[in-house]
Write a structure and sequence with these properties.
The protein is an alpha/beta fold. It has 6 helices and 4 strands. The protein has helices at about 20-35, 55-65, 80-85, 95-100, 105-110, 135-159; strands at about 5-15, 40-45, 85-90, 110-115. A 4-stranded parallel β-sheet has the order 2-1-3-4, sandwiched between helices. The two termini are about 15 Å apart.
């Protein structure tokens, strides 16, 4: 009997140095802990930080929670990502619009979801960009994403 293909998840924010690499690290940990048949990556809607590592404050926040995201390098979302990924989670309404604008069809659009709708369905709550905030902003983002990633893991377990 053939095994189900891996569920492929993409986390998307603006520059791919704060929120989405943190979401990727959190989700990767949940995949490992729950032994899920899934894979996760991240990207940004802009090319501002192409090939750069995650923001040092993001790396530090991740480290405090037992995550190592030091190998992360920023990349930009591309149309071909609709073919590569089953679930595309965006961090805010602007990211949502930027990704959906690239969708070729309804199937592409159906893959794109606001990540916080996993915890507050239909509210379209933004994950705030912590780039211009202090460490408290990064901790808030971690907390929000951790809760949302638990719900994503629950959904994958049900597949």
């Amino acid at each position: 009997m053939e095994e189900n293909p891996k569920t492929k998840i993409l986390m998307v924010c603006l520059g791919n140095i704060c929120r989405s690499p943190l979401a990727e690290g959190i989700m990767r940990q949940k995949i490992e802990e729950r032994n899920l048949h899934a894979d996760v990556r991240s990207s940004g809607t802009s090319s501002y930080h192409e090939s750069e590592p995650a923001d040092p404050r993001t790396i530090s926040t991740a480290r405090r929670h037992g995550l190592d995201i030091t190998r992360h390098r920023a990349s930009q979302f591309a149309i071909k990502d609709f073919d590569r990924y089953d679930m595309i989670f965006v961090m805010d309404k602007s990211n949502y619009q930027n990704v959906v604008r690239l969708a070729r069809n309804d199937n592409d659009r159906r893959k794109v979801r606001m990540i916080m709708n996993m915890t507050t369905a239909g509210k379209n709550t933004d994950v705030p960009d912590p780039y211009y905030s202090g460490s408290d902003g990064f901790e808030l983002v971690y907390s929000m994403l951790d809760e949302a990633c638990d719900k994503i893991a629950d959904e994958i377990e049900k597949r």
